Amino acid sequence: MSATRSCMVRQFQYYADLSEADIELLDSLEYSPEKLPPERVVWREGGSANELAVLSEGWACSYYTLEDGSRLILDIYLPGDVIGLREFATSEHLATVETITECTLCRFPHHHLTDIFAKSFRLTRVFFAVATTQQSILVERMINLGRRKASSRIAHFLCEMHARLGRMNEHMGNQFRLPLSQEMLADIMGLSSVHVSRTFSQLYDDHLVERSRHNIRIPDMDRLIEHAGFSNSYLGRQSIIRDRA
């Protein structure tokens, strides 16, 4: 087994210590990589839900299309994320999934996940932890939309992205790449593109966020966390499976 672990394995190792057998089971889900360009639909809302996918490289998102043709972005998927867990018990996809950047995606049928559940009690618990973390992120997104002012919404989202990316890169510091267009940020925040631009200008004037195209720098993380009212507890606790064994 290679010493270089996949992003998915490293994501799962955040929650629990995995055996070599567990790692081989996870690696089996990434045997058929598929290269996709940016803005490629992976599956559409209402389509038959008979598969999941591992995002091995790149960024993707899921969204609902509203009655007026606009969209609400629900999830931002990062390398190592499993896409489609919330739809494991449904017959139709609940949202459209689309790539943001060039991606490597590995699709697999539902029964492969069932096979893993039968073979590894530890991975069953980790998949449950991953699914509940995804649900918690969605709940926090709804709170962001309904209860926070614009500057706090954007600040909270940036804190979340920093925390999630930091799990895969502990030496990241306070700078990271955010490959989201102004329109995408508006669709995440429930704001207009103009309002997003003005809010970033406000955050810059307040010395909270520096933004240059797709690059984000946070001069003082503690101040941004305080401004956002951010707590990373909803993102799941490290080694939670081991601690609750």
Automatic annotation (TrEMBL):
SUPFAM superfamilies attached here?
A: cAMP-binding domain-like, Winged helix' DNA-binding domain
Family annotation (InterPro entries): cNMP-bd_dom (IPR000595), cNMP-bd_dom_sf (IPR018490), Env_Response_Regulators (IPR050397), HTH_CRP (IPR012318), RmlC-like_jellyroll (IPR014710), WH-like_DNA-bd_sf (IPR036388), WH_DNA-bd_sf (IPR036390)
Q: Which GO molecular function annotations are given, in alphabetical order?
A: DNA binding; DNA-binding transcription factor activity
Keyword list (alphabetical) reads: DNA-binding, Transcription, Transcription regulation
Record domain HTH crp-type: where: 148-222
Coiled-coil spans are none
Q: What would be one Gene Ontology cellular-component term for the protein?
A: cytosol
What name does this protein carry? Crp/Fnr family transcriptional regulator
Q: What is the lineage of its organism?
A: Bacteria, Pseudomonadati, Pseudomonadota, Gammaproteobacteria, Oceanospirillales
